[in-house]
Amino acid sequence: MSDILKADHVSYTYQGKYQKVHALRDVSCTFAPGRFYAVTGRSGSGKTTLLSLLAGLDRPTQGEIFYDGTPYAELDTAKLRREKLSIVFQNFQLFPLLTVEENITYPMELSRVKTAKARERAVELLEAVGLPKELRKKYPAMLSGGEQQRVAIARALASAPRIILADEPTGNLDFENGENIIRILKNLVEKENYCVILVTHDRGIAEQADVVYQVQDGQILSSPEYIMSAR
Ligand SMILES: Nc1ncnc2c1ncn2[C@@H]1O[C@H](COP(=O)(O)OP(=O)(O)OP(=O)(O)O)[C@@H](O)[C@H]1O
Ligand SMILES: [Mg+2]
Question: Which is the CATH superfamily of the domain at 1-84+161-231?
């Protein structure tokens, strides 16, 4: 199976006011389509830093990230995020002044999809994440946390990406809602060949992944711990 994302000897240093923080040190890891990855580790170990480099939101201090074999230095990473790679955050980050429908159609508008088509797709996406289409006229503040996170996933899917990066997407949810989100993400991996990379503190969730990368003090611990999945 060929890798879709690769971090190759990546280091990242935050230049603080008084000192440098070596958030990542010589990290190498690979990610393939049709696989569900968990990134675990203590608070401050470097998980979010790794995810933001994989998302191309920041550049490594050393090393390089590759998408389908092309180094990010040679890519338009904003375009990559519009077309191939979506991010889901712990605190949902929906646009509060836009309706559910407008939140979901927003990425499609950026890609110049016609409004009627985008609205049609928004209804399909709501269905895909198990939400009734009646929710589309509501504003995020009128929804529960679990519902907001599903809308955030629907929005992430709007651009039909190949990769989803999720930073503690279940961190603000109760067990049942968290499991629902994981089920949706796993389904995307199994049925639609997505590559899902999920940062989580939750042991139970990490155990459901195909591959677990454990980060400690800015490094990935030895070889990845491959967890036998049921499939
Ligand atoms: N903007 C910043 N400036 C300086 N140092 C930072 C900055 N962001 C993060 N760090 C430091 O970099 C290290 C890695 O942080 P990171 O956010 O990647 O950790 P994390 O594993 O995601 O933690 P958490 O589980 O708490 O979200 C930590 O030591 C953190 O204090
Ligand atoms: Mg973090």
Answer: P-loop containing nucleotide triphosphate hydrolases (3.40.50.300)
